[in-house]
Amino acid sequence: MNLPRKLPILTAFLLSACAVGPDFHAPKAPAVSGYTNRPLPVTTPASKTLLGTSQTFGGQLANNDEWWKSFHSPQLDHLIDEALAVNPSITAARATLEEARQTWAAQAGSTLYPKASLGLGAERQAFNDAFFGQNGTNIFNLYNANVAVSYQFDLFGANKRALESLAAQSDYQQQELRAAQLTLAGNIATAVMTQAALSAQIDATQQIIALQQKNLALAEQRQHMGAIALSDVLSLKAQLEQTQAGLPALQERLQQTNHLLASLLGKTPATDLPQFSLNDFRLPARLPMVIPSRLVRTRPDIQAAEAMLHAANAQYGVAVANLYPQINLSASVGQESLTQGALFNPASSIWSLAGQLSQPLFNGGLKAGVEAAKANLRAVDANYQQTVLQAFRNVADSLRALDNDAQTLAAQTAANDTAQQSLDLTTQQFHLGSASYLQWLISQQQAQQSRINLIAAQAQRLTDTVALYQAMGGAWVNTRLSFDFDNRTQRLSIYMHLHAEHSL
User: Fold this and answer.
1) Taking the complete model, does pTM exceed 0.90, yes or no?
2) Is residue 55, in this structure, part of any structural domain at all?
């Protein structure tokens, strides 16, 4: 057999490595056409009040859209852009993603290509001639220089599957960064809308307290004149104190909301923050509606779960590949001499070529490792299915909340209009002398309480819309982070493609 002529055939055989274990295929989306068991209305009810716009389901977002801009609040846009740049959690997520990418690059560099190293050495030795029946000891120097090359042939795809797993883990970290950005933007939007609602409710509560104080003062005067009983005065006083007791709770919630907003912006609670009102926002008239089959491709939590499933599938392939033979080749060429001057003399050349084939004969741990990897794959697959179910429930809850809370706003608007009409009528009667001052104050108090309820309903529509954007996956980040990762994935895909070509 002529080995040099057969060497290309042998090399082609060694390069025709296959990857054992199942190839990964993205799970199919649930075969459903909607999110709720009963169809949603095409549009939500409209109300003739602030943030009472009727919203239509079925709008679309371009991949590079920033959903928070649909509220038309430049101040909110600025806060979110600032937070995305400086928030420590986002910074940590970016660093973790870069760590995953560099880990992939390190593994790829050490397994895709041969390893080469340069060695230089010098030794001083003493040799005893008595071993050969002579007297004396020879002392000499030994110099050497060599280049060593080694390569492990990936016959059964262990290295390929390991790289595939690391690439999937990089994908997971990318989706985690997307999720962190989406959550941060949603939390900031919700915080500023809550701040606006609480500020308005505090203002309305303070007006109610002022009216109740006037009401109590008038009642005390009438009680001194004997017009009303003391029990009526005490009842009004208890009502005032109860309203006053609720004011600190509202102020505390506002302060906590401001503290939360400061931390989301990467600042301390002592920082002065911009103040928002409900008039700073416009309700989007069209709401995004991503079909279920697309939702699994846009929600970062589902994509992260899919990436972990991909990684687990690849790790199972690694465990299976460890059951099969491994071939390692190494070669070395260099010079060795007794003097430095003769080190690079052609006569001092040395070389070596070695090959090693290893096949596990008995290692019970390898089989157990395969079973463990298979069990982990089943567990990760179940976690993926649970993530999809939770996402679909999240979307369904958001859609129902939008419809129900639009109806609530319509009802609160009607109640507020009725209370205002009652106040207007009582005011006219008071000026005409047919209604008492006390009746007028009570009517004002009822109108202010209706206003508080209306403010809560208005703010709820805003936060419901934010929740829907989050539930739909925030497609705006798709084009922001994938460039570098796609390049590395492309390089891995090229390697796999070349590997497949060799097998042909």
Assistant:
1) no
2) no
